[in-house]
Structure formats: structure tokens, C-alpha cells
Amino acid sequence: MKKNSIYAVDLDGVRLSCKVKVRSPKPPLQDAKLAAYGRALVRCLIKAFAKPLAAHGIQLTTPKVKAYRHAIKTPCGRFSQRDAPAYYCSVTRTIYWPVSGDDGNEAYTFARLGYIGLVAHEFGHHMQAASGMLLEYGRRSFEAKSRSERYLLSRRLELQAQCFEGIFLAAAERSLGISSNDRYQLRVWHSYTGDEDPPTGRKPDHGSSAAQIRWLNRGLYSADFGRCNTWKADKKLVK
Questions:
Q1: Three-class SS of residue 80?
Q2: Residue 177: CB atoms within 10 Å
């Protein structure tokens, strides 16, 4: 995972034309339109990443997007409406999106780029799967000798997806009209998603707010996959 070919991809200077309307989660989209909007965002992500990754031997398929009510059983587990704003399952190559996630005070609903950032993060896991890192992560997590070791691996995985999200936003900056206020909103969003945030039962598996913002900015201000190598980063950078 430390020497994956994806790190040779650098999109600095790339200007992606993403023909998708930026739809703020406030007010929320109608539930029936959520999956269709997610698919439109995925097409833009494929446009951004498929050719650059293919040039380095990584073949991207187009993941499916499934919005669901109540709960859903998948090969990756049972997903509810409460635990996370979205999920990615590599077995089905699907982003699962609970329809109630944008109805309340989920942190992503406070950012104009909330929907886009959320789908881009889950697509980051799709790229980890395509590059072979997600499979290796699963093996190492299974073989981990302690809970703290598994949590550390999970944080490295999640923070890398955060960095990949930032790369997409960098490449699509002009097309999406990303402003300094959007960047501020992204920082505010992730100040509420860190492992230190309530509820008290939250697991230390996604990284602190500071770590999430740090790795998002690595991608956002460089557009370089080489800056997203969380697997060789010092532990203090992925807390």
C-alpha cells in the first residue's frame, strides 16, 4: 500500500469540466432524486480519474449508487439510516446512501459542496478497491493483533479517501465554482466529524477533525495522489 502505482498520478494543473449542478443539501433533495444525483456525480468522478489511473495500470469501473430507506443488508454488512451518511461496499461496487442522511443535522448538510464531498469520499474508497489497497487493508485488518492496530489501519484508509476527495475538488475547482467560503465550509463540516466528536461511543476509526482537515487539504491544495500516502505517514498525522 505504501508503494501503490496510484501515487504516480498527479492532476496538478488539470481543469476538469464537470457538467453537474452543485446542489446544496439545504434544503435537502427529494429522496426519489438522491440516487440520480449521486450517479451524475459519479460520472463526473469517472471523467476525472479513469484515464489518469488507467495510464498507471488501474482500471476504474463505474460504481453503482443505491439510495435506501430504513436499513439494507449487503455483503459488507447491514447499513442503517443512523451510523454514517453513506457507505461503500467493494463486493457490489456500490455506494449506499441512506435517504434520511440529509434531512437532519448531518454535518455535510451545512456545506454547499456537501453532497459532492460525500460522494467523492466514497468514490475514494472505490479507487482504493480498484488499486488493490482495499483488499490488502482487509487482509491486514483481519490479521491485526489488537483493536488499536485495526483502528490505526482504518484511520489510514479513511483519511486517504479524504485526501482523494480533495484531489477531485481541486481538479473540478473552476467547474464547480469553488470559493474561499466553500473551503471554509468544508473545514467547518469536518470539525464535526472527527473521532473526538460526540457521541461518546464513537470509535477512533476515521481520524480526528484536525487529521481529516489535514488530509483533505493535502489533496485540495496539491491535486497529487503522491501526497495522499497515509500508509507511510507518521502515526501522529493519522490520529
A1: coil
A2: 11
Burial letters 144-175, b for 16+ CB under 10 A, else e: eeeeeebbbbbbbbbbbbbbbbbbbbbbbbeb
Which residue, 10, 48, 25, 1, is CA-closest to 112?
A: 25
Cell of 209: 477533525
Q: Bridge-partner residues for 74, per DSSP?
A: 77
- Residues whose CB is less than 8 angstroms from the CB of residue 144 and which lie 6 or more positions away in sequence, other chains included: 150, 153
Q: Alpha helices of 191-230 — where are they, by DSSP H?
A: 209-220
DSSP state of 193: S
In whole angstroms, give the CA distance from residue 95 to residue 37.
Answer: 12
Tens of pLDDT, residue by residue over 129-162, are 999 999 999 999 999 999 999 999 999 999 999 9
Extended beta strands in the chain, E state: 64-68, 72-74, 77-79, 87-89, 94-98
The radius of gyration of the chain from alpha carbons, rounded to an integer in Å, stands at 16
